[in-house]
Amino acid sequence: MALVEIKVPDIGDFADVSVIEVMVKVGDTVSQEQSLITVESDKASMEIPCSASGVVKEIKVKLGDKVHEGSVVLMLEASDSAAAPTTVVAPAPTASASKPPPTPASAPAPSVSASSLIEVMVPDIGDFKDVSVIELLVKPGDTVQVEQSLITIESDKASMEIPSSATGVLKELKVKVGDKVNIGDFIALVQGSAAASNSAVAAPAQPTVAAPSAAPQSASSAASASSVQAPAQVPLHQPGAAISSAGPVPHASPSVRKFARELGVPLEEVKGTGIKARITHEDVQAFSRSVMQGTVSTKAQQSRGVGASGAGSGAALGLLPWPVVDFAKFGPIERKPMSRIKKISGANLHRNWVMIPHVTNHDDADITELEAFRVSTNKENEKSGVKVTMLAFLIKACVSALKKFPEFNSSLDGEDLVYKSYYNIGFAADTPNGLMVPVIKNADTKGVLQISQEMGELAKKARDGKLSPAEMTGATFTISSLGGIGGRYFNPIINAPEVSILGVCKSTMQPVWNGKEFAPRLMLPMSLSWDHRVIDGAAAARFNAHLGQILSDFRRVLL
Ligand code: CAO
Q1: CB under 8 Å to 526, separation ≥6 — which residues?
Q2: What pTM, to 2 d.p., does this model score?
Q3: Contacts of 328 (CB under 8 A, 6+ apart)
Q4: 237 is catalytic
Q5: With CB atoms counted within 10 Å of each terminal CB, which end of the chain scores lower, N or C?
Q6: Angle CA(462)–CA(464)–CA(470) in degrees, nearest 5?
Q7: Cβ proximity of 526 and 547 under 8 Å
Q8: What is the pLDDT of residues 64-92, one digit of tens each?
């Protein structure tokens, strides 16, 4: 067993590149070709493979160190001393990374296809073959500079950005995400700006790619080799510009990207904890674990309304994660799955609460005479078996208000308001399995007796879980009555795509000033929630006032 030095192999012109990841530790058994560290320049990252198999005895680099060809990475007790001489060990790296990529900042000489149309090719990328395009950093119409990154390509050992060899307007990208590219492939067509295109036209016959070389040229030497000079005022390197049109590119090594892809983790949503906020293997694992535990949800889940813990993690809104508590630590517990109805209605209520700018106006209606009328009507109709409810009167009163204020009976559809000429009133029904909203269709055409009868039937069906989808859809306005239970006021959540909802609570006898004295009146507390994108506060106040007038003198419904 020989102790050998494992060194950084030929990495082209990369001088003093940073170690951003150490992938092994002392005591690890490593095999030939296994990646040991990841190094990174501002344009590319690559993993440095081991040149022998054996056991890691000492690691000679740490995060943040700068390394170059020949730097000792670690001491290895080689299992095969023949394969790993004790002197400098920098064998040809893996097949896929036998020659780490030259700095892609060396833009190849462009090919001039027309007076000012410049073809941008893949420069010398070493021995990399059929490398996948993983990101497009610009789009047609963007103004690009010489050396500005156009696309990112990635093999299983390295990722690198391919720069533009010309300044001008990007006319066409010849590749898409997923395409495989090789040295010399035509990737983009740039319409040269005046200075750049003049240079291009003045240039002698150009090679379409720079001469293959493992030793990349500097940006300026690449430009001069092709005789295409960037205008003096054009900055040669604009890292910010590379991402401005396509959003920030997650900062991660190729193996971490691959790992994230395998798990289906959206890398752009992972917070990097490595150097320069780089995303590490552990970050991807932690993100994946949080999603599985329900403490974090991805943006895709959020857009589908699948919140972490069924309650929304808040992560997408930049909020603190949902608290995870071991309730059993504090006392006995029983865990029960939520009913299907609760899960469905919960997701709908959550969306409506978050997406609709709600405002609620509270008011009182004097229903003294109406309640007396209701009680006497029920006495008269005792034998009919149909009990007239306050809710039936409310439905009729609301239809009258909806007719007078049509925006309350509308729905938002993009930038249009859809006004409905029918009046279907939903009513919230409390059932053992959760909240359901049956709908009284065409309430404007029905009398209070008929509405009361239908409501009784629908409420029973709701409690028995027998409502059909047709009986729960098509509402234009909803009423939620807690009058039979109690309470004063509450903020009902609008039932999208409706734009308003009326909540009523238990009526009580109140001393009301009639101009001469306080008189006992039966007052009904009303809470009207409305969508402020569609309705203004003044309209809401008028709606409630109209409702109050009708309820205090129901003859007004006829007007
Ligand atoms: N003030 C005072 N008493 C009222 C009243 C009010 N606003 N509304 C109803 N009452 C009385 C009724 O007169 C009835 O009394 P009697 O038995 O003496 O006649 C009693 O309360 C029970 O009424 P009810 O609830 O059976 O009938 P309803 O027409 O008022 O309501 C229904 C029907 C289906 C809406 C109701 O049963 C229900 O489920 N309410 C809950 C709705 C709900 O959960 N809303 C909250 C949604 S937001 O989470």
Answers
A1: 362, 363, 364, 365, 502, 503, 504, 544, 547, 548
A2: 0.53
A3: none
A4: no
A5: C
A6: 40
A7: yes
A8: 899 998 999 999 998 865 444 433 333 33
